[in-house]
Write a structure and sequence with these properties.
Layout (H helix, E strand, L loop, with lengths): L21 H6 L3 H18 L2 H12 L4 E4 L2 E5 L6 E5 L2 E2 L2 H5 L5 H12 L1
Antiparallel strand pairs: 1-2, 2-3, 3-4
Helix pairs in contact: 2-5, 3-5
């Protein structure tokens, strides 16, 4: 064990089993639990939002468009890139978010990212 390593988990955060690979000790989950945590996050998202909205949110994440500001809060660019919105899973400063009738893609993306963290 290298005591100088930065974040280092010795046991899985979910099941408590000893972690062996470098990737697992960095994330804190074994390979099986990583899959389960991701699947649980996906299930929670799919249960709450419409599929086309989830697809738009995933697109934003894949583009690396959301910048973490502080815990749970992300900066999201407007479609034309001239403005930046502040998004949290419960609120967003974009026009659709302010109306608040439906969760906007920024909110869904912030929700997905906060679950994956
Ligand atoms: Zn585990
Ligand atoms: Zn928004």
């Amino acid at each position: 064990m290298n005591a100088a390593a930065t974040t280092h988990h010795t046991n899985c955060l979910r099941c408590g089993r000893k972690l062996t690979s470098a990737k697992s000790t960095a994330t804190g989950y074994g390979p099986t639990c990583t899959r389960k945590v991701k699947a649980a996050a996906k299930a929670e998202i799919v249960a709450q939002y419409k599929p086309h909205q989830v697809a738009k949110a995933e697109e934003l994440i894949e583009q690396g468009a959301l910048i973490p500001l502080r815990t749970g809060i992300y900066l999201a660019p407007s479609a034309d890139g001239t403005r930046t919105y502040k998004a949290h899973r419960t609120a967003c400063s974009c026009p659709a978010g302010i109306k608040g009738l439906h969760p906007c893609k920024h909110r869904i993306a912030a929700h997905i990212l906060s679950l994956a963290a």
